[in-house]
Design goal:
By secondary structure, the chain is mainly alpha-helical. The chain is built from two helices and no strands. The termini are far apart.
């Protein structure tokens, strides 16, 4: 009895594909952290509303979701 040939969609990605995906994920995480930090910044010369922090958190969350993280 022979095993069915594995479908290419179930094949493990090669090192280059995995590295590319990892680079994309790291870039997305870095951008999410920047957005979140910007929303949480407390600059003495400016009034920062609580809505700004919430907006930063929402944007960071949306970035992560867009990349499946």
């Amino acid at each position: 009895m022979t095993q069915p040939h594995p479908d290419a969609s179930h094949a493990t990605p090669g090192p280059e594909a995995r590295l590319s995906r990892l680079e994309t994920q790291v870039a997305t995480l870095a951008e999410a952290v920047r957005v979140l930090a910007r929303g949480l910044e407390d600059i003495p010369s400016q009034d920062v509303s609580p809505e700004e922090a919430a907006r930063g958190a929402r944007l960071a969350h949306e970035l992560l979701l867009s990349q499946g993280l």
